[in-house]
Amino acid sequence: MQQIHLSGGIEFYSFRQTRFKQGALSIQFVRPMKKEEAACNALLPAVLLRGTKRDPDLRSITLRLDDLYGASVSALVRRVGDYQTTGLYCSFMEDKFALDGDEILAPMLDFVGELLLEPVTEKGAFSENYVESEKKNLISTIETEKNDKRVYASAQLMKILCRNDSFGLPRLGEKEDVEKITAQKLYDHYRKVLSESPVQVFYVGSAEPAQVAKLLTKQFEKISRAPVMLAPQTALAGGDGGHVTEKMDVAQAKLCMGFVTPITNRTADFAAMQVMNTVFGGGMTSKLFMNVREKLSLCYSVGSAYYGSKGVLTVSAGIDEGKEKIARDEIMAQLEACKNADITEEELTAAKEAVLSALRTIHDSPGAIEGYFATAALSGQGMDPQAHGAAIAAVTGADVARVARTLCYHSSYVLKK
């Protein structure tokens, strides 16, 4: 991975490879995660994709992409730690596979520049029809997530766990905030995003990094920028936890538990905590799955997730309503086993192999490469995959127990009838 500093607060990362027929490029405007703008950031790329001055509707956009050998462009909205990104992700054929004399990379970047910098406008604002249409789509997506009770319960736990931290905000914002967005409000925010936001561009493909950097500079020099640098990523903000029960007409109760640790992906014990999470509840060989679900039949589903950017670990279980207390107690008992180094060699080996296997898939596609490195850069993680893998392989049972002892039970959420 080569990093090049472009002018105006733009960081360009190039991962040069020749194994794939497709290249990938993402452009992310990095914003602080805030309730007052989260919905605007989520809506913005969808509106930009509706048309440009040259190609003012979806039909024109589709024809333009067809001319670029079936390239694709999609909205890209990430939430990584304290940051939210808004931007575009592109996939396109490498120049060397095009017909003689045809280029794809340069015209692709010209098109992306048009999407970002030359949107369809009406009276100094975005098209009202386009904004209202995409608001409906975004609200539908938000409501779909709420209708999935497992996802809903996990989101409610995060709001309780992170009540003093922006990490509890939904990636796409709240429905009521989307409803308040107007074409003028979104356009004013768009101008602010272009001017103030740090920009991270990731390219995966065979072109020379200097060539891609030159093409990018050509696009960004069209706008006046005064970037405002963001504060570094932080661990979860302190504060008291909470234990909330909500009643709803559900077929299966949901139990979610939240834990905090000072270990993040910016600290030395990150790899050990990844392995610990996998031993505890990160897969089908984990203690939670093998004991709480399989052996004791206390839940229909159970698993844990570790959010390294903030130092948060959560457990989510689908349970019978009457088994809430015993399931909660057994989950805590399995964590205690991890803290006491009650871990077999088979459990440790399986957990390490699962994490290493996930790391190996990073190089399976341009999109996977972009996803790993973009997220790592945003979160402040300094390890490349090779160093990361070596750190995972070196984790011992004693390391797992040591990092497990840093976990503190913080909050819980129960959804039941």
Q: How large a portion of the residues is in β-strands, by DSSP E?
A: 15-25%
Mean pLDDT: 95
Tell me the major beta sheet: 6 strands, mixed
Q: Summarize the helix and strand pattern as letters.
A: EEEHHEEHEEHHHHEHEEHHEEHHHHHE
Q: Over the alpha carbons, how many angstroms does the gyration radius reach?
A: 23 Å
N/C terminus separation: 51 Å
Arrangement of strands in the largest sheet: 1-2-8-3-5-4
Low-confidence segments:
none
Summary keywords:
417 residues; five-stranded mixed β-sheet; globular; 44% helix; six-stranded mixed β-sheet; alpha+beta
Structure characterization notes:
This protein is an alpha+beta fold. The protein has 15 helices and 13 strands. It has helices spanning 35-48, 58-67, 105-117, 128-147, 149-161, 175-179, 183-196, 209-220, 270-280, 287-295, 324-339, 345-360, 366-379, 385-393, 397-404, and strands at residues 2-6, 10-16, 22-32, 72-80, 83-93, 121-122, 125-126, 199-205, 243-247, 253-260, 301-307, 312-319, 408-416. A six-stranded mixed beta sheet has the order 1-2-8-3-5-4, sandwiched between helices. The protein has a five-stranded mixed beta sheet with strand order 9-13-10-12-11, with helices on both faces. Strands 6-7 form a two-stranded antiparallel ribbon. Strand 4 and strand 5 (83-93) form a beta hairpin. It is globular. The termini are far apart.
